[in-house]
């Protein structure tokens, strides 16, 4: 039997991440953690999140669109037009507070990982990028448009991916669909929820079967909420209206 955790879309919310990690560490049977990207951006505890993530030896990390857009700003590269009106000023602020020791880590994150676990094929990504778009810069919007949660939509979104289990993030709501051939799972966002809780997933692989559990972890989110005003985070009005 193999058991591992899936978390995604931390979005700079260290308090939520800390609660999730404490819950994972309290369980003796979770062997590994897969972190599916958007580590930073939106939230304001950038370095705290990255310090925790980079110090976990049992965590595999993937790039999200916010991670890549922020690094485009950091390297003075072309920024995605699709994000400019909403996030450019905010991402500039993130870069101003981002410790440069994390640049290499963020620059080297993979966009997808495939892995065989107990004879089954697993596909990990932040969100679908077509094969022909895999090498495109973030400014070219390589990620596919978000689809609403349904078996039909995710089946179409990941058409061509040959895997027993496909897991992803990006859209911050739960996806858990099974078309017999493939299980599609997005646990929802660790850091951005309409309430004082964080979510992640636990996957158990045993005797050729895959079982999935979504875990909801309560935490005190008041310091996270207050921090936007205290630090005068750019774009906080949009963030509260759309994400929190």
From TrEMBL:
Q: Name one GO cellular component term.
A: cytoplasm
Q: Which Pfam families match?
A: Metallophos_2
Q: Gene3D superfamilies from the entry?
A: 3.60.21.10
Signal sequence span is none
Instruction: Tell me where in this chain the Calcineurin-like phosphoesterase domain is found.
Output: 3-207
**Which terms does the record give in the GO molecular function aspect?**
phosphatase activity
Can you tell me which family this protein belongs to? Answer: Belongs to the metallophosphoesterase superfamily. YfcE family.
Q: Which PANTHER family match?
A: BLL5683 PROTEIN (PTHR42850:SF2), METALLOPHOSPHOESTERASE (PTHR42850)
Q: What is this protein called?
A: Metallophosphoesterase family protein
């Amino acid at each position: 039997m193999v058991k591992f955790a899936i978390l995604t879309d931390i979005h700079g919310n260290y308090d939520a991440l800390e609660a999730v990690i404490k819950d994972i560490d309290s369980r003796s049977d979770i062997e590994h953690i897969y972190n599916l990207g958007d580590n930073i951006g939106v939230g304001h505890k950038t370095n705290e999140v990255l310090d925790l993530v980079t110090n976990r030896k049992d965590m595999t990390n993937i790039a999200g669109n916010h991670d890549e857009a922020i690094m485009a700003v950091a390297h003075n590269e072309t920024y995605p037009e699709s994000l400019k009106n909403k996030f450019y000023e905010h991402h500039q602020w993130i870069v101003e507070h981002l410790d440069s020791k994390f640049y290499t880590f963020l620059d080297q994150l993979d966009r997808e990982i495939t892995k065989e676990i107990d004879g089954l094929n697993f596909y990990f990504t932040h969100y679908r990028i077509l094969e022909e778009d895999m090498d495109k810069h973030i400014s070219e919007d390589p990620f596919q448009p978000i689809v609403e949660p349904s078996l039909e939509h995710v089946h179409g979104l990941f058409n061509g991916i040959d895997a027993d289990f496909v897991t992803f993030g990006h859209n911050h709501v739960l996806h858990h669909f099974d078309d017999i051939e493939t299980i599609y799972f997005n646990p929802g966002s660790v850091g951005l929820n309409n309430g004082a809780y964080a979510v992640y997933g636990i996957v158990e692989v045993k005797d050729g079967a895959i079982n999935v559990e979504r875990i909801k972890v309560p935490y005190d989110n008041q310091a996270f909420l207050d921090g936007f005003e205290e630090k005068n985070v750019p774009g906080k009005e949009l963030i509260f209206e759309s994400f929190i």
